[in-house]
Amino acid sequence: MSHEKLQVQTTCPYCGVGCGVDISGSQEAIAPVAGMKSHPANFGRLCVKGSALHDTLSHTDRLLHPTMNGQATDWDTALNLVADKIRQVISTHGPEAVAFYGSGQLLTEDYYVANKLMKGFIGSANMDTNSRLCMASAVASYKRSIGSDTVPGCYEDLEQADLLVITGSNAAWAHPILFQRMAAAKKARPDMKVVVIDPRKTATCDIADLHLAIKPGSDTSLFNALLTYLHQQNALDKDFIEQCSENIDAALEAASTAAEDFSQLADITDVEQQDLETFFAWFRDTPKTVTFYSQGVNQSVDGTDKANSIINLHLATGRIGKPGACPFSITGQPNAMGGREVGGLANQLAAHMDFSPADRDRVRRFWQSPRIAEKPGLKAVDLFNEVKSGKIKFLWVMSTNPLVSMPDADDVKEAMKHCELVVVSDCMANTDTTAAAHVLLPAASWGEKNGTVTNSERRISRQRGFLPPPGEARPDWWIITQIARRLGFEKEFPYEHPADIFDEHARLSMFENKGTRDFDLSGLTNLSREQYDALAPIQWPVNDNYPSGRARFYDDGRFYTESGKAKFIPVDARPPVTSETGLTMNTGRVRDHWHTMTRTAKAPVLARHIAEPYADFHPEDAMRLGIRDNKLVRLWSNLGEIIVRAHVRSDMAQRKGEVFVPMHWTSRYASKARMGALINKDHDPISGQPALKITAVEATIFPTE
Ligand code: SF4
Predict the structure, then answer these.
(1) Is the Cβ atom of 47 under 6 angstroms away from ligand 1?
(2) Which residue has the CA at smallest separation from atom 3 of ligand 1?
(3) CATH: 2.40.440.10, 3.40.228.10, 2.40.128.110, 3.40.50.720. Which one for 136-330?
(4) C-alpha distance across the termini of the chain, in Å
């Protein structure tokens, strides 16, 4: 460790806001971090999690050496064993018996190399990622309607909107800096209206002029009824619809069945009729509207339809690609977007290409690939099902903890036992998932590795290392490259530095790109190491037309569908969710923890907000079930149980019939706290995204009296 003074600019490794972080002090003593004033995501601000990053850098519980069956070994031995096993599985069972499962924590360069190895050289597309749990429905809905996985707007749109509709997102806790920007905009412009649509009354409601606490699952009824209302009120943008879109009639017809009138809609959504009328009138009268949405929309069995019902509203009113007007899906993870750019999901190839014959051929020729995957691979739920069935013989989990985060987490644990070789590359030594691995490969962590991430407004930012990795930890791209070379692909995986990978990725983005694809990084090719190191945050695309990046898409009325027009998607409204038990569990984040707490648990300041797992109850449910505030409660489903602290919300923040449980705690912190063990595998048939928001549960005081 050096005593030399540090001055490094990097990017926060937590949420999809992607805030810039200034590092100072020395390697011996990192100073408290500060927000990077010049970063366009945060302009110097950091939330509590970001501000505590320097407290999370200790090497406690780090994985320091490769291990095989619990015994430390050297890199060569571990890498040879992994490569030999992949080779043997391919020759015995074919490439489909090999699977990778990645993470939005991986940097774009890591993701690129993993995807290239799996899809271009192993020859299977069985690489999926925990972004499947987070963004897959938003991605599928964009692809269906606007032809590209491209967030149309930018963060400034959230500040410039006259009406901000926040739905399925507790932005105040999950994306705090963006929420602060929204709150500041509202304070500066008191006439700006904010509507929050969420079954719970969350901290995000602090800035709401109107909160619609809809019945879980009634979202599409609400948005379809709004589309019908706008049509009836003659409030559609006829010019935009005619010139830039298609299929409006089918969408209007499907929407018309949502509700006959406000009174029926009030019954369906369990929202006061007057509040619905107010929301609809505001939407009708406000051209500058942004609809901001997240997991409450995505994580359900009809998440893709829900997102399309939102996009339909924006297309019908021409509110897309204009300052202060767009549908805006926010990503949960720091690099969910970057991962998708290089094909992180099983149904994608790199550089925003998919499995069409033309795209496959283009990627194959660029990679000089001997056996490019022929068809999309298995999405997360199916992937782990096939691990359990025995079809997948080799599984490599990279930087994520599916034994906690996947639905039916106990079944994933069981699946691991059926796999011939489970490899986990991670920076942490003791997670639920590392405990299930045969081979552990120590990965470099935030602050130790170099690369890029892309945030929710398509802004590419550098993550820069400022500490040496401890023990024998190595960057993920290096580990994957070593395996590729051992499989015989030395020439195709020549990378010595993440800049080499970024350059290849940028060149692929423009390879035979004849303007039919939006993702073009030609302006970022051939960067020297110094230029790559100095790369300032920039929104893609970066090319001759947009040398400084592009803030908004579709301002030219051109979409990435075959016809060049945006497509309305007819969406059938589903009935709201009911549970025979009278209680459904909703899950989500707390303000000061991140995912399964492997990093945030190291910062004592972050435990001050909420120190233990809990369940929020409505007072009437608590009364009915004999549950008392601050006492332990047992929650169970047909799959498993958890035991957590009951919070009876006298402020009525919790809807009756619903219980909220945070997602973070694992068996490391409490023996029965993995909420994933209660959730079944229901998922959206289009996006494959699990329905993590609604699970029928029962509850009783613990221990039973
Ligand atoms: Fe990090 Fe997100 Fe907080 Fe920004 S808002 S500091 S990216 S956790």
Answers:
(1) yes
(2) 47
(3) 3.40.228.10
(4) 56
CA nearest neighbour of 454 among 397, 516, 521, 405: 521
Residue 679 pLDDT greater than 70, yes or no: yes
Q: How far is the CA of 42 from the centre of ligand 1 (A)?
A: 8
Structural element, H or E, at residue 240:
helix 238-244
**Domain covering 67-134+336-511+519-535, topology:** Rossmann fold (3.40.50)
From CA 164, how far away is CA 201, in angstroms rounded?
A: 17
Q: Give the position, in ligand 1's atom list, of the atom nearest the Cα of 47.
A: 3
Q: Which atom in ligand 1 lies closest to the alpha carbon of residue 455? A: 7
pLDDT exceeds cutoff 80 at 705: no
Q: Is the CB of 50 under 6 A from ligand 1?
A: yes
Taking the domains of the chain in order of start, what are their residue ranges? Answer: 5-56, 67-134+336-511+519-535, 136-330, 584-701
Distance CA 142, CA 157 (A): 18
Q: What would the pLDDT profile of 88-139 be if each residue is shown by its tens digit?
A: 999 999 999 999 999 999 999 999 999 999 999 999 999 999 999 999 999 9
Three-state DSSP class for residue 626: coil
**Is the CB of 330 within 6 Å of ligand 1?**
no
What letter would DSSP give residue 298? H
Domains 67-134+336-511+519-535 and 136-330 share a fold: no
Residue labelled with tokens 């029962």: 698
* Most ligand 1 atoms within 8 A of CB, residue of 21, 42, 178, 456 to mutate: 42
Q: Domain 584-701: which topology? A: Barwin-like endoglucanases (2.40.40)
Question: What is the value of ipTM here, to two decimals?
Answer: 1.00
For the stretch 587-618, pLDDT in tens is 888 888 888 888 888 888 888 888 888 999 99
With CA atoms as reference, report the closest residue to 315 among 382, 262, 240. 240
Structure tokens at 200: 């719970």
Q: How confident is the model at residue 476 (pLDDT cuts 50, 70, 90)?
A: very high
Q: Is the pLDDT of residue 350 over 90?
A: yes
Q: Give the CATH fold of the 5-56 domain.
A: N-terminal domain of TfIIb (2.20.25)
